[in-house]
Structures are given as C-alpha cells and as structure tokens.
Design brief:
The complex is a heterodimer of chains A (193) and B (195). Chain A is mostly helical. Chain A contains 8 helices and no strands. The longest helix of chain A has 31 residues, at 37-67. By secondary structure, chain B is mainly alpha-helical. In chain B, the strands form 2 sheets. In chain B, strands 1-4 form a two-stranded antiparallel ribbon. The chains are: A mainly alpha (193), B mainly alpha (195).
C-alpha cells in the first residue's frame, strides 16, 4: 500500500463521499452549530478529534470482538467507546478553552449521538479497512464534516442578512441551501473511480 | 452459556478500561475554580465600587460566568467595558441596564480639609487605598488613584467629602469623535417603496 492509496481514501471521503452531503449523516450538529462561524470551527475541531479516535479505537475493538465471535455486540461496544471518547474530549476542552466549552454547550456531549461518529466506524467494518485505512477514513470523514460545517456557517451568516420570503425563513432556507450544496458536491462524483 | 459469559467478560473489560481512562482524565484535566471567572475579572475595572449590586468585582465576575447576572451593570467600566465583556463571552452588546446605576462623568472625591476630624473611617472604606491620613490627622485624597466610586461618602460622620467631576482642562482636552446623525428609516416606508 503506497501513499497514493491513502490520499485517494482521504480525497474520496472529504469530497466525493462527503459524510454530510452525500451520506447524509450528522445533520444534527450540521444544522445546530452552524449559526456562528467560530462555534462551527470549534465544533469541527472537536468532532475531528473524536471521529479520528473513534475510527481507530473501534477498529481495534472490532478485531477483539471478531476474535471472540461476538460481532453482534458491535454497535453496543462502539457506542460505549464513542461515549467514553466524547467525555474525555469534553474534559480536555473544559480545561483548555472554557469559552469554547460554553459556546458548544449541549452540542459537545451530543457528539455521542452524532450518527456520523457511529456511522464511520460501522462503514469501516463494512468495507473491511485495515487499521491505517480506518484512521485515514475517520480523519477524512471528519475533515469533510468540518469543511461543510464551516462553509455552511459562513453561508448562514450571510443568510441572516438576506431578504428571504417569510415562509422560507430560518430552518427552511437552511435546508434548501444544504440541498443545493449537496447537489453541487455530486459534481465531485467522477473525481475518484 | 459460555458464549454469554464470554460476552459479559469482554464488555466488562471494555467498560473497566474506558472507566480507567476517564478516571485518569478527570484527575489530570481537573478544572480548579472557573477559568472563565478569571478572564471576566480581568476585564472589570477593579474599582470594587459595588454599584452592580455585588460586593466587588470578583463576585460580579462569578455571577456573569454562571449566567446569574447581565453584563451591563458596571458603571465604571462604561460602554467600553460592556463591549469587551460581550466580545469575551460571544454575546450581543447591550446598552446599560435601565434600573442599574448609570455611568457618570469621570469624577474624584475631594475632602474638605477644614471640616475633616481625622476619624479614618473613609480610609477603611476606600477600595483602592486612595486616601492618606491617620487618626486625628487631616486626610486627603490622591486624585490620580481615586476612581470616584463614592464608597467613602457614606461612612464620613461630618460629611466633608464631595464628589467633584473632572472637568476638561488644557491637559486632558482632546478632539471629539466626529458624529454623523443617522437617518431614521421607518419600516412602513420601506415596504411601500419596495412594493
């Protein structure tokens, strides 16, 4: 396995199979934390950290489960590991950046229930990735998530000042925008074969 | 039967390992006090005047950090102080609280030296140690230290302290910022013009 293989995985997870716009995972923080650009940056960083760690550690745990023929415990044990990592991240952020901790608020513990964070380890299992591939897949998905979150937050800050027809104000125009972004990202479809 | 026991054992080991990591993290990344309080306290003017309704600047900082009080109650900090707090906390700027004390022009306390009996009560009240004097001796105020917080007025038994606004002198005068009158746009007028 040479480096281009990993680069290919990275590009395909960030752009082609983007976790938010193509796989439609992790919409809760995508809509919830994208109102301010700074909060979106912080959320992106926290999710990147959690998702990369979750992808790596859940791969190890999957191997443990396969060794004992306990594959049916996969979802349960993945959730357990993710919850532990999120708690750990929360403590680190509380210590290092109290303002970010306040800005993220309830969305920080809610990374636990972010379906992207559970979906990526399960996809890793499904596609039978090696440990290194799983790590790159997790990091790439997280980078794709952060990229979309930041782009979308910047758009929503502009939308605040836009003259939107009354029935479309708020979440409605946000979902329309997200749909258009998703359409645009389909253009990357032919990038990786 | 063994399959169930095996499953239980694996999950238990997993839980114990994760619990150990979290336990270690809670000791390693323990938050002493609230770091946010320190940052808010650094923005407040430290006059300890109590005009916000709290006994000093630090209790007010704690109240802001816990969301118990608003950021617009510090008259010595002025609008600039509210602006800094709003930026630090990532909230919207808001004008001064209607019910709270309003910001006053910068002023200092002056002791009428003919009436002062040297009781030292005002020295004990001063939060910034701007009053010099001793028992049975006339007191005076260091004007450059005084914050004009008015805390020394109440304890004085002979009412010899007055608050004097610092007027503009040749030394501290400066150009005013240019102010442009903004035209008021009525919402009804805009809807008429757009339709």
């Amino acid at each position: 396995m040479d480096i281009s293989h990993y680069l290919l995985i990275l590009v395909s997870t960030v752009l082609v199979n983007n976790v938010v716009l193509v796989r439609i995972l992790g919409l809760c923080p995508f809509m919830g934390v994208s109102k301010k650009l700074e909060a979106a940056l912080g959320m992106g960083a926290a999710t990147t950290f959690v998702l990369t760690l979750a992808a790596g550690s859940s791969h190890l745990i999957n191997q443990l489960l396969v060794a004992f023929e306990l594959e049916y415990l996969r979802t349960l044990s993945f959730i357990l590991v993710i919850a532990g990592i999120v708690q750990f991240t929360e403590m680190v952020i509380h210590k290092t950046s109290p303002v970010l901790y306040q800005v993220l608020g309830i969305y920080l513990p809610l990374i636990t229930t972010n379906c992207a964070v559970l979906g990526v380890p399960l996809l890793n299992v499904q596609e039978q990735h090696t440990f290194a591939e799983a790590l790159v897949f997790g990091a790439g998905s997280a980078l794709g998530f952060s990229l979309i979150l930041i782009l979308f937050a910047a758009m929503r800050e502009r939308l605040e000042g836009a003259d939107v027809p009354t029935p479309f104000r708020g979440a409605a125009i946000a979902f329309v925008t997200a749909g258009l972004m998703s359409l645009a990202f389909m253009g990357f479809g032919g990038l990786v074969k | 039967m063994t399959a169930i026991l095996l499953a239980l054992a694996v999950m238990a080991i997993l839980a114990v390992v994760l619990g150990g990591i979290l336990g270690f993290a809670s000791v390693r990344f323990k938050v002493e006090g609230d770091p946010l309080v320190e940052k808010i306290d650094a923005v407040l003017p430290q006059t300890q005047c109590g005009q916000c309704g709290h006994p000093g600047c630090r209790p007010y900082a704690e109240a802001i950090a816990h969301g118990e009080d608003d950021i617009n109650k510090c008259p010595p900090g002025g609008e600039e102080g509210i602006r800094k707090l709003a930026e630090l906390l990532g909230v919207e700027f808001k004008p001064f609280d209607e019910g709270a004390a309003q910001p006053k022009p910068k002023s200092v306390a002056v002791i009428d030296e003919n009436t002062c009996i040297g009781c030292t009560l005002c020295i004990q009240a001063c939060p910034v140690d701007a009053i010099v004097g001793s028992a049975k001796q006339m007191h005076t105020i260091i004007a450059s230290e005084c914050t004009g917080c008015e805390l020394c007025l109440a304890p004085c038994p002979v009412d010899c302290i007055h608050i004097v606004p610092v007027g503009t002198t040749v030394k501290n005068w400066k150009w005013r910022y240019p102010v442009f009158a903004l035209k008021l746009v009525r919402p009804s007028a805009t809807t008429e013009s757009s339709s």
